[in-house]
Amino acid sequence: MAIEKMKLLNIVIEKDKAHDVLKDIVLAEKIHLVSAISEINENNFVMKVDAEHIEEVAGLCLIDTFTEKKDYKSIQKKLYKLMEYMQIPKTLDKQLIDTSFDFIDLQNEIDSIYEDLSSIRLRMQELSDEKSQLSQMSIIQGIYEPGVDFRKLFDLEYFNIKFGILTKDNMERLIRNYENIYAAVLHIGRRGHDEIYVVISLKELAVETERILRSVYFEDISLLDEYLGTPEEMIKKIDERMLHIDQELEGLQLRSEEYDEQYGKRLMVCYAHLMLEIKIEQMKKYLAVTSNYVYISGWVGEEDEDFINTLFEPYGDQMVIGESDDAETVVALKPPTKLNNNWLFKPFENLVHMYGTPSYSELDPTPFVALAYMILFGAMFGDLGQGMLLVLAGVLMTRKRSSDYGGILKRIGLFSMVFGFFYDSFFGYEHVISKLFPESLSEKMFLRPIEHINTVLILAVVTGLIFLLISYGYSIVNKIKSSDLKEGVFGRNGVVGLCLYLVLLLWVGGSALGWRWVPVNLLKILAVIAVVLMVIREPLSNSILKKRPLYHEPASAYYVESGFELLETFLGMLSNSVSFIRVGAFALNHVGLFMAFHTIASLIGTASGEVVMFVIGNAVVIGLEGLIVLIQGLRLVYYEMFSKYYNGEGEIFSPAVVDDLGGNK
Amino acid sequence: MSNVRKFAALNTKIKGMVGKLLSHEDYMNMLKLEKESEIFEYLMSHTYYGNIFNDMPPTDYTVSNVERQIKGYIVSLYRKILCYISGDYKKLFKLLMKRFEAEDIKSYLRALHLNQNITELYKEHLNYEVYTNLNYKELSLSRSMEEFIEGLKSTMYYKVLKLYLSESKDRMLFYMEMNIDRMYFSKLASEISKFKGDEKPIFEILRMNIDFLNFQWIYRGKKFYKLSPEEVLNYTLDNGHYLNYETLKALSYASDEASLFEIMEETHYHKLFKHDEKTERYLERDMDRYLYGKFLKSDRESNLNMITVVAFTHRLEFEMRDLFTIMEAKHYGIPADELKDYLIRIL
To answer: Which end of chain B is more exposed for a tag (fewer CB within 10 A), N or C?
Structure first.
């Protein structure tokens, strides 16, 4: 339930083993690689040095980046094409990766399948092209005149004959100026959306006619010479050829299907391995190399230590591993952050990352965020029935797509149900749940917001105060951890700030509630001391730590700034605390909205009206208010709490894993 | 009310952009300058264009670089405007932007026609991904017209351009350029005719533009390329404003240039076509000036609609063309008085 401890792993291995090591790393999915070159340059590359490793160490002064790069683009293209042909989805199945395979064999396999299949495909394309040309020729059926020999038609001495397609607009253009055109244009039929015409023109005017036809975008249909004859002969020839083509196509189709069956699974394996190889190639940019050795740097969680040791065991003496696991060194190296929370809080890590990843030395705010968000949401949107729907939606969402957001929905829905139970609210109907319990019990058990407006509002503010105090706690711990004396002790979110807040609370609370025992005068003195400490926090902390200069800017500027900050601090304390009143307000609002729908329903007065209003009311409340409450909860967490204690400047721990580049999820 | 929702923000944005256009004084000051380098300096220090040259090293101040930068800047303005438009208007505006694509394709074809190497030509078109889906980088690897046109397979231009590959070399480019324009404008005209809003005045101007294009094609087709009347007529666009089919037919079948102008004198545009020595020389400029005047007028009279946008984009284009004219003229040392006559803006 915290940020996992990390250590930096430094590996040196012979160059020809680099590929295997990288493969192990990416399949392990537990190592976050960093650039070895910069680690070496910053002297963070720690290794055990003894006599037998002298060569590896000596190489360090001649480092370079990894320049031998393999290009998988062409094989990737071929594989994708094959998968497209066979309609195999490009989905990565990591189970298919077999570490004993050599990718070169797979590559050859892809090449040979591609060659065979693409020749089949090419032939199929040729045939279907021919088919479409032939089917265009079947226009002659429209001008069926037995015995006319087309050979002669195209062989006339003074006339040219053309068949082709004209659009309606363009035909109109021709007709409008028909008197000036030296050609007969006759409509002979229609095929689909195309209007087919025959154009008869003088040979002498061939060029002009050609230009005119082109200016109306006339699309030629050419009749192939070898088919010319009388229409009967032509149709017969075309039909015969078509039949032949169909047969051949069918055969080819069968053959290509055979390929699908034979190689479909194999291609999935190839795809998985290709993804692996591409990833390894990408990882090489993190490496440093010398003429014989390769240097790899990466972060691993401390608890994975045993796993890593077994992983690299086979390399034995050939591999030198160095580790930086001294706590102080590790922090100085700014490791990536790996959050480790239990199942209840895990989905909320997303909300934290949305704001910023905690840095390694910060406290993980996830548990607090999770609890606070669940309680706030539940309090604002308390309804047993609707909460149930949210849980259901969460379950569906987990199954369909985003498991994290679905998880959040499930949890806040659950809290909505819990609060809804105590609010005695079921799909907007109050006094339904309480009927299940004996009256004596239900008197004490339930808190209906609309009947106890003040109680609800006060409870909201009190809850807010508790959250704020916890935030102060987080802030103080975080700042002390990063040894920030100035802000941690004397700052407005530090110990002094907390004291001032408590003093003010006691003072205000005491005078409002008439508590006699509150030592007002003492509180006044304490407040003044706290204020003074906050104002002089920089020179004070610097003199305690014996740092010079006392001020990082002119003293006058510092005090003016401090003065304004003080004002802001007071305003902030007030607004932060009052801000939580919205939690109560939304709880009331929730009921209020339903009352409106109940009123409409009773105005309608029929049972069906009631049902309709019930459905609409619930839909509106879940959709509209649910969304608002979702955002308001987030706002309270981010703005009132995070701004106090959280920096979120860390880097997320992202171990090297094989990526699915195909894009078909 | 719905127009307020659709256009209030947009018009405010446009107003801001109009303020950055060149003023009358800017033009007058630039006319007085001697060299093109002084023009750059003037633009740099006195006008909004200074902001777009900022990231250019001073050694790069050549006419072509500056032109490219200005074109890219204009496209970036279009991109900004696009964010404020929605629905059918967005469709219309995107179509207006396709004009850039058509111009780019023409420039590629021109270069290929001159057997130039176009490998680097895509760098000339800054921000082109705003208005086109074509991959210019890939297209500019083409070594021949055929290859280039194959690359346009997914566009509406492909089918038609292919028809002209077999045309003789001296006419091929004319045919291709004309057909690209023709396709673009016929698409624009058919989109416009579907519009029901209160943007009528602006569509009238766009249709006048079609009139002018038709006239220019007939004029050039007859004078320089000796096309047959039937062919010329078929290439004209429908949806003109004042030149109807009968007029176009008469123009196409006119026996010589003089009668072309005579026919035009009978039309709405008679003022532009008084046939004397200067008419032909300044015809294109006069047509542009005519449209420019119309755009300004309709912009003044419009209120919360698309007119402001269309008028602005045209003003922007006219200004760009004037700027290029000024820079070229200074390069060749043409005196200010003569230069004035070539500008669209009346000074």
So the answer is: N
